[in-house]
Design a protein that fits this description.
about 40% helix; alpha+beta; flat
Length: about 80
């Protein structure tokens, strides 16, 4: 995809702060903001190759009014039950 076209897609501009500002605007239109965050649950295995990206994701989501509850699972025990 040409870079000019890619920049027009939400979240694909190289300017990270601009992308975050757009994401915050979307969240504010949906009724979320610094005083009211969207709660989510992130479930991942308690192994560094899985846990570390989950921690990075959570850190980025906090910047756009999405708060987390991380659920670390032992390797082999991850299931769909309890995720919803």
């Amino acid at each position: 995809m040409p870079l000019e076209l890619l920049k027009e897609l939400p979240g694909y501009d190289p300017d990270v702060e601009k992308n975050r500002a757009q994401a915050r605007q979307i969240m504010q239109k949906l009724g979320y903001g610094p005083d009211k965050s969207l709660p989510i649950k992130v479930s991942t295995r308690d192994l560094p190759p899985f846990r570390n990206p989950a921690v990075l994701l959570i850190d980025q989501l906090k910047q756009i009014y999405i708060v987390h509850n991380i659920c670390l699972r032992r390797a082999g025990s991850l299931s769909i039950d309890g995720l919803l």
